[in-house]
Specification:
The protein contains 12 helices and 5 strands. It is of the alpha/beta class and about 350 residues long. The protein has a 5-stranded parallel beta sheet, with helices on both faces. Helix 9 links the parallel strand 2 and strand 3. Helix 3 runs antiparallel to helix 6. It is elongated and about 85 Å long. About 5% of the residues have low confidence.
Protein backbone atom coordinates (compact mmCIF):
# COMPACT_ATOMS: atom_id res chain seq x y z
CA UNK A 1 0.00 0.00 0.00
CA UNK A 2 1.40 3.42 -0.99
CA UNK A 3 0.57 6.14 1.51
CA UNK A 4 2.63 8.97 -0.02
CA UNK A 5 1.58 9.87 -3.55
CA UNK A 6 0.86 13.00 -5.57
CA UNK A 7 -2.42 13.59 -3.73
CA UNK A 8 -0.87 13.42 -0.25
CA UNK A 9 2.08 15.58 -1.32
CA UNK A 10 -0.27 18.29 -2.65
CA UNK A 11 -2.31 18.03 0.54
CA UNK A 12 0.80 18.54 2.65
CA UNK A 13 1.86 21.51 0.53
CA UNK A 14 -1.53 23.13 1.15
CA UNK A 15 -1.10 22.65 4.90
CA UNK A 16 2.41 24.12 4.81
CA UNK A 17 1.64 27.11 2.57
CA UNK A 18 -1.83 28.09 3.78
CA UNK A 19 -2.52 29.15 7.34
CA UNK A 20 -0.45 30.35 10.28
CA UNK A 21 2.22 28.24 11.93
CA UNK A 22 1.67 30.13 15.21
CA UNK A 23 -1.33 27.91 15.99
CA UNK A 24 -0.69 24.73 14.00
CA UNK A 25 3.01 24.17 14.76
CA UNK A 26 5.92 23.78 12.36
CA UNK A 27 6.31 20.54 10.40
CA UNK A 28 9.50 19.12 8.94
CA UNK A 29 8.15 19.74 5.44
CA UNK A 30 7.44 23.39 6.27
CA UNK A 31 10.95 23.70 7.72
CA UNK A 32 12.44 22.25 4.54
CA UNK A 33 10.54 24.73 2.38
CA UNK A 34 11.67 27.62 4.58
CA UNK A 35 15.25 26.34 4.47
CA UNK A 36 15.29 26.25 0.67
CA UNK A 37 13.73 29.70 0.48
CA UNK A 38 16.59 30.81 2.73
CA UNK A 39 19.13 29.29 0.32
CA UNK A 40 17.43 31.05 -2.58
CA UNK A 41 17.53 34.35 -0.66
CA UNK A 42 21.22 33.89 0.19
CA UNK A 43 21.88 33.72 -3.52
CA UNK A 44 19.47 36.52 -4.47
CA UNK A 45 20.16 39.25 -1.90
CA UNK A 46 24.01 39.28 -2.04
CA UNK A 47 23.83 39.37 -5.84
CA UNK A 48 21.60 42.48 -5.73
CA UNK A 49 23.89 44.18 -3.22
CA UNK A 50 27.10 43.38 -5.07
CA UNK A 51 25.56 44.50 -8.37
CA UNK A 52 24.65 47.85 -6.77
CA UNK A 53 28.30 48.30 -5.71
CA UNK A 54 29.94 47.43 -9.04
CA UNK A 55 27.42 48.43 -11.71
CA UNK A 56 28.89 51.91 -12.28
CA UNK A 57 32.45 50.74 -12.88
CA UNK A 58 33.18 51.57 -16.54
CA UNK A 59 35.84 48.89 -16.96
CA UNK A 60 33.52 46.11 -15.83
CA UNK A 61 31.20 44.66 -18.44
CA UNK A 62 28.04 42.76 -17.48
CA UNK A 63 28.24 43.50 -13.73
CA UNK A 64 25.02 41.55 -13.14
CA UNK A 65 26.66 38.37 -14.47
CA UNK A 66 29.83 38.86 -12.43
CA UNK A 67 27.78 39.49 -9.31
CA UNK A 68 25.60 36.39 -9.70
CA UNK A 69 28.42 34.05 -10.72
CA UNK A 70 30.65 35.42 -7.96
CA UNK A 71 28.02 34.84 -5.28
CA UNK A 72 27.22 31.35 -6.54
CA UNK A 73 30.91 30.46 -6.74
CA UNK A 74 31.42 31.66 -3.16
CA UNK A 75 28.61 29.38 -1.94
CA UNK A 76 30.00 26.46 -3.93
CA UNK A 77 33.39 26.89 -2.25
CA UNK A 78 31.75 27.22 1.16
CA UNK A 79 29.67 24.06 0.74
CA UNK A 80 32.67 22.14 -0.64
CA UNK A 81 34.57 23.00 2.52
CA UNK A 82 31.50 22.18 4.59
CA UNK A 83 31.23 18.75 2.98
CA UNK A 84 34.88 17.84 2.39
CA UNK A 85 36.26 19.34 5.61
CA UNK A 86 35.44 16.32 7.81
CA UNK A 87 36.86 13.96 5.16
CA UNK A 88 40.07 15.77 4.21
CA UNK A 89 40.92 18.30 6.88
CA UNK A 90 39.48 16.54 9.94
CA UNK A 91 38.06 19.85 11.14
CA UNK A 92 34.69 20.77 12.59
CA UNK A 93 31.99 22.31 10.39
CA UNK A 94 28.64 23.87 11.00
CA UNK A 95 26.72 20.66 10.28
CA UNK A 96 25.99 18.86 13.52
CA UNK A 97 26.01 15.50 11.79
CA UNK A 98 29.54 16.12 10.50
CA UNK A 99 31.18 17.66 13.56
CA UNK A 100 32.52 14.39 14.93
CA UNK A 101 34.92 12.56 12.65
CA UNK A 102 35.15 9.52 14.95
CA UNK A 103 31.90 7.87 13.89
CA UNK A 104 30.40 4.76 15.43
CA UNK A 105 28.28 4.41 12.31
CA UNK A 106 29.57 6.04 9.16
CA UNK A 107 27.36 8.79 7.66
CA UNK A 108 25.55 8.10 4.42
CA UNK A 109 27.95 10.29 2.47
CA UNK A 110 26.09 9.90 -0.84
CA UNK A 111 22.93 11.19 0.84
CA UNK A 112 24.85 14.10 2.40
CA UNK A 113 26.38 14.92 -1.00
CA UNK A 114 22.93 14.90 -2.59
CA UNK A 115 21.73 17.31 0.10
CA UNK A 116 24.70 19.60 -0.58
CA UNK A 117 24.06 19.62 -4.33
CA UNK A 118 20.40 20.44 -3.70
CA UNK A 119 21.38 23.41 -1.52
CA UNK A 120 23.78 24.67 -4.21
CA UNK A 121 21.06 24.53 -6.85
CA UNK A 122 18.86 26.82 -4.73
CA UNK A 123 21.78 29.20 -4.13
CA UNK A 124 22.29 29.27 -7.91
CA UNK A 125 18.63 29.90 -8.69
CA UNK A 126 18.62 32.85 -6.31
CA UNK A 127 21.78 34.35 -7.81
CA UNK A 128 20.59 33.90 -11.41
CA UNK A 129 17.12 35.28 -10.63
CA UNK A 130 18.76 38.36 -9.11
CA UNK A 131 20.90 38.89 -12.23
CA UNK A 132 17.74 38.81 -14.35
CA UNK A 133 16.17 41.44 -12.13
CA UNK A 134 19.26 43.63 -12.56
CA UNK A 135 19.52 43.14 -16.32
CA UNK A 136 17.81 40.66 -18.63
CA UNK A 137 19.89 38.10 -20.54
CA UNK A 138 18.26 35.30 -22.49
CA UNK A 139 21.15 32.96 -21.61
CA UNK A 140 20.60 33.54 -17.88
CA UNK A 141 16.87 32.92 -18.29
CA UNK A 142 17.69 29.64 -20.00
CA UNK A 143 20.08 28.78 -17.14
CA UNK A 144 17.36 29.51 -14.57
CA UNK A 145 14.83 27.34 -16.43
CA UNK A 146 17.41 24.56 -16.67
CA UNK A 147 18.04 24.72 -12.91
CA UNK A 148 14.30 24.60 -12.24
CA UNK A 149 14.04 21.43 -14.33
CA UNK A 150 17.10 19.88 -12.67
CA UNK A 151 15.86 20.68 -9.14
CA UNK A 152 12.42 19.14 -9.70
CA UNK A 153 13.41 15.62 -8.65
CA UNK A 154 15.60 16.63 -5.65
CA UNK A 155 12.81 18.90 -4.40
CA UNK A 156 10.26 16.07 -4.65
CA UNK A 157 12.66 13.60 -3.03
CA UNK A 158 13.54 15.78 -0.04
CA UNK A 159 10.00 17.02 0.53
CA UNK A 160 8.53 13.51 0.51
CA UNK A 161 11.43 12.23 2.64
CA UNK A 162 10.51 14.82 5.27
CA UNK A 163 6.95 13.46 5.08
CA UNK A 164 8.23 9.94 5.76
CA UNK A 165 10.15 11.20 8.80
CA UNK A 166 7.48 13.45 10.29
CA UNK A 167 4.72 10.84 9.95
CA UNK A 168 6.85 8.39 11.93
CA UNK A 169 6.40 10.74 14.92
CA UNK A 170 9.90 10.33 16.34
CA UNK A 171 10.46 12.15 19.65
CA UNK A 172 13.55 13.88 18.22
CA UNK A 173 15.60 14.07 15.01
CA UNK A 174 18.72 11.90 14.85
CA UNK A 175 20.68 10.23 12.07
CA UNK A 176 22.38 6.95 12.93
CA UNK A 177 25.81 8.54 12.33
CA UNK A 178 25.07 10.98 15.17
CA UNK A 179 24.78 8.12 17.67
CA UNK A 180 28.12 8.22 19.45
CA UNK A 181 27.82 5.63 22.23
CA UNK A 182 30.11 2.61 22.48
CA UNK A 183 28.92 -0.66 20.98
CA UNK A 184 30.47 -4.07 20.40
CA UNK A 185 31.49 -4.97 16.86
CA UNK A 186 29.00 -7.84 16.67
CA UNK A 187 26.19 -5.55 17.78
CA UNK A 188 27.23 -2.89 15.28
CA UNK A 189 27.12 -5.53 12.55
CA UNK A 190 23.68 -6.61 13.78
CA UNK A 191 22.40 -3.04 13.42
CA UNK A 192 23.77 -2.71 9.88
CA UNK A 193 22.35 -6.12 8.91
CA UNK A 194 18.99 -5.09 10.33
CA UNK A 195 18.99 -1.97 8.15
CA UNK A 196 19.87 -4.04 5.08
CA UNK A 197 17.10 -6.58 5.77
CA UNK A 198 14.57 -6.47 2.93
CA UNK A 199 11.92 -8.83 4.26
CA UNK A 200 9.34 -8.71 7.04
CA UNK A 201 9.12 -10.13 10.54
CA UNK A 202 12.61 -9.14 11.75
CA UNK A 203 12.70 -8.23 15.45
CA UNK A 204 15.46 -6.48 17.40
CA UNK A 205 15.53 -6.36 21.21
CA UNK A 206 17.66 -3.48 22.54
CA UNK A 207 18.48 -3.73 26.24
CA UNK A 208 20.13 -1.03 28.31
CA UNK A 209 19.95 1.00 31.50
CA UNK A 210 19.09 4.67 31.69
CA UNK A 211 21.52 6.72 29.59
CA UNK A 212 22.87 3.76 27.62
CA UNK A 213 21.53 5.19 24.34
CA UNK A 214 18.92 2.53 23.57
CA UNK A 215 16.19 5.00 22.56
CA UNK A 216 18.52 7.16 20.48
CA UNK A 217 19.90 4.07 18.74
CA UNK A 218 16.42 2.83 17.87
CA UNK A 219 15.38 6.26 16.55
CA UNK A 220 18.61 6.47 14.52
CA UNK A 221 17.98 3.08 12.93
CA UNK A 222 14.36 3.90 12.13
CA UNK A 223 15.28 7.34 10.75
CA UNK A 224 17.64 5.72 8.25
CA UNK A 225 14.76 3.47 7.19
CA UNK A 226 12.49 6.52 6.82
CA UNK A 227 15.08 8.25 4.64
CA UNK A 228 15.01 5.16 2.42
CA UNK A 229 11.25 5.83 2.11
CA UNK A 230 10.18 3.20 4.60
CA UNK A 231 6.86 3.53 6.44
CA UNK A 232 8.00 3.70 10.06
CA UNK A 233 6.23 4.47 13.33
CA UNK A 234 7.44 5.29 16.84
CA UNK A 235 5.27 4.60 19.86
CA UNK A 236 5.69 4.02 23.57
CA UNK A 237 4.66 0.68 25.03
CA UNK A 238 1.95 2.14 27.27
CA UNK A 239 0.29 3.91 24.35
CA UNK A 240 0.53 0.80 22.19
CA UNK A 241 -1.17 -1.33 24.85
CA UNK A 242 -4.29 0.84 24.60
CA UNK A 243 -4.22 0.60 20.80
CA UNK A 244 -4.40 -3.19 20.95
CA UNK A 245 -8.14 -2.74 21.49
CA UNK A 246 -8.71 -0.57 18.40
CA UNK A 247 -10.21 -2.50 15.52
CA UNK A 248 -9.41 -0.16 12.66
CA UNK A 249 -6.12 0.27 10.82
CA UNK A 250 -7.52 2.90 8.47
CA UNK A 251 -5.35 6.06 8.49
CA UNK A 252 -8.34 8.03 7.19
CA UNK A 253 -9.80 7.84 10.69
CA UNK A 254 -6.63 9.49 12.00
CA UNK A 255 -6.52 12.64 9.80
CA UNK A 256 -3.07 13.70 10.99
CA UNK A 257 -1.49 10.34 10.15
CA UNK A 258 -0.81 8.73 6.78
CA UNK A 259 -0.27 5.32 8.37
CA UNK A 260 -0.69 3.67 11.77
CA UNK A 261 1.27 1.14 13.81
CA UNK A 262 -0.70 -1.66 12.15
CA UNK A 263 0.25 -0.90 8.55
CA UNK A 264 3.74 0.56 8.92
CA UNK A 265 6.79 -1.38 7.78
CA UNK A 266 9.01 -0.73 10.81
CA UNK A 267 7.74 -0.12 14.32
CA UNK A 268 9.76 1.19 17.28
CA UNK A 269 8.22 0.28 20.65
CA UNK A 270 9.94 2.39 23.30
CA UNK A 271 9.89 2.42 27.11
CA UNK A 272 8.79 -1.17 27.55
CA UNK A 273 10.67 -1.17 30.85
CA UNK A 274 12.80 1.64 32.32
CA UNK A 275 15.81 -0.44 33.39
CA UNK A 276 18.37 0.54 36.03
CA UNK A 277 18.06 2.14 38.50
CA UNK A 278 14.41 0.95 38.48
CA UNK A 279 14.23 -2.74 39.32
CA UNK A 280 11.62 -5.24 38.19
CA UNK A 281 9.29 -5.43 35.21
CA UNK A 282 6.62 -2.76 34.93
CA UNK A 283 5.30 -4.38 31.76
CA UNK A 284 5.71 -8.13 32.03
CA UNK A 285 5.59 -10.52 29.10
CA UNK A 286 2.43 -12.11 30.50
CA UNK A 287 0.64 -8.75 30.76
CA UNK A 288 1.80 -7.72 27.30
CA UNK A 289 0.53 -10.95 25.73
CA UNK A 290 -2.75 -10.77 27.64
CA UNK A 291 -3.51 -7.30 26.28
CA UNK A 292 -2.15 -8.13 22.83
CA UNK A 293 -4.31 -11.24 22.46
CA UNK A 294 -7.55 -9.68 23.67
CA UNK A 295 -10.96 -11.03 22.70
CA UNK A 296 -11.84 -8.31 20.19
CA UNK A 297 -8.59 -7.77 18.25
CA UNK A 298 -6.25 -10.57 19.37
CA UNK A 299 -5.81 -12.50 16.10
CA UNK A 300 -5.30 -9.31 14.09
CA UNK A 301 -2.82 -7.95 16.66
CA UNK A 302 -0.82 -11.17 16.64
CA UNK A 303 -0.66 -11.13 12.84
CA UNK A 304 0.66 -7.55 12.73
CA UNK A 305 3.29 -8.14 15.42
CA UNK A 306 4.40 -11.38 13.78
CA UNK A 307 4.76 -9.98 10.27
CA UNK A 308 6.18 -6.53 11.05
CA UNK A 309 9.79 -5.44 11.53
CA UNK A 310 9.93 -4.20 15.13
CA UNK A 311 12.58 -2.66 17.39
CA UNK A 312 11.77 -3.41 21.04
CA UNK A 313 13.42 -0.91 23.42
CA UNK A 314 13.78 -2.72 26.74
CA UNK A 315 15.25 -1.98 30.17
CA UNK A 316 18.31 -3.57 31.72
CA UNK A 317 18.74 -7.29 31.17
CA UNK A 318 19.23 -8.29 34.81
CA UNK A 319 20.38 -11.95 34.90
CA UNK A 320 18.01 -12.60 37.81
CA UNK A 321 15.00 -11.46 35.77
CA UNK A 322 15.96 -13.30 32.54
CA UNK A 323 14.39 -10.53 30.47
CA UNK A 324 16.04 -11.60 27.24
CA UNK A 325 14.80 -15.19 27.60
CA UNK A 326 11.29 -14.01 28.58
CA UNK A 327 10.86 -11.65 25.63
CA UNK A 328 12.42 -14.00 23.13
CA UNK A 329 10.03 -16.65 24.44
CA UNK A 330 7.09 -14.27 24.01
CA UNK A 331 8.05 -13.49 20.42
CA UNK A 332 8.36 -17.19 19.64
CA UNK A 333 4.98 -17.76 21.28
CA UNK A 334 3.53 -15.17 18.89
CA UNK A 335 5.00 -17.17 16.01
CA UNK A 336 8.29 -15.42 15.24
CA UNK A 337 11.22 -17.65 14.32
CA UNK A 338 14.21 -17.49 16.64
CA UNK A 339 16.44 -16.75 13.63
CA UNK A 340 14.46 -13.53 13.10
CA UNK A 341 15.17 -12.26 16.63
CA UNK A 342 18.30 -10.16 17.25
CA UNK A 343 19.38 -9.00 20.70
CA UNK A 344 21.62 -6.03 21.54
CA UNK A 345 22.66 -5.22 25.12
CA UNK A 346 24.17 -1.74 25.49
CA UNK A 347 25.15 -2.24 29.13
CA UNK A 348 28.80 -3.14 29.52
CA UNK A 349 29.79 -2.25 25.93
CA UNK A 350 33.49 -1.67 25.43
Amino acid sequence: MKFINAKTVIGQLKKDLIGKDSYRGVTLTYTWLANQFGHFSLGFIPTILIYALIKDRPALHYPELWASLGVWSAWILFELYNFLGPLLLKTSTRREALKNTDYTFSPAWANVAFDTITDLAYFGMGAIAASLVCSYHSQMLLALISLLIVIAYPAYYWYTTKMYIQNAEYPFQLRLSQWSQKIKDEHKKAVLDYLDHKGEGKHMLIFGSRGSGKTTLSVGIATEASIKNGYCSYITAVKLLSMFFERTDNPAESPNKLWTWRNCGLLVIDDINPGKPVKGDIISTSLFYELLNNVDCGPDNLKHIREKNIIWVMGSDDPTNLLEEKWQGLLQQIGIKKSNIVTINLDGEN
